[in-house]
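Many introductory courses stop at the sequence. We go one step further.
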Amino acid sequence: MAGLKFRILLDSIENTEVFRDIIINDDFNFEHFYNTILDAFGLSNDQMASFFVSDEDWNKGEEISLMDMSFGDLDDEESPIEMNSLLLKDRIDDPKQRFILVHDFLSMWIFLIELHEITEDEVESPQLVLEVGVIPPDLIEKGPKPLDDMHFETDRDPNSEEFDFDDLDDFDDEFGNGQFDNIDDYDI
């Protein structure tokens, strides 16, 4: 077993630098790593998330998902691997291995993760060894909101004639000649 020291940087348009350094054993799974990252940044674990194995240019590669959301639509080779079934050491191919973590697909919290050091020291539990920056409160406020709180605005008045669908005969066909009567009149 080896200890892995990762730097996890919050990717943000804000001009503040926010990152955490974490040491974790290589025999922990990705779900444990994910929860450690959330704890380090003070985020809740009530959202969907995926890691992506990345290259040196931060291109997304293989997906490692919190849970399988394919509903059996994909074969085993195309389905994402689940975080709880894969150990960190199984995806460490480079001493500077990179991952991208996307947490909460609606708010798109993106974390850039880079392996900084591999030690022979065994780490019994994950450790937060460096904490730089604070997530700006306005970023947290932009996070997920319950649908009840959302207000959808439109410049159309629902009582106006634009929403009157009672008389569909007023519509012309795509050529503007109004000759379309019934779909059954066509041999299809």
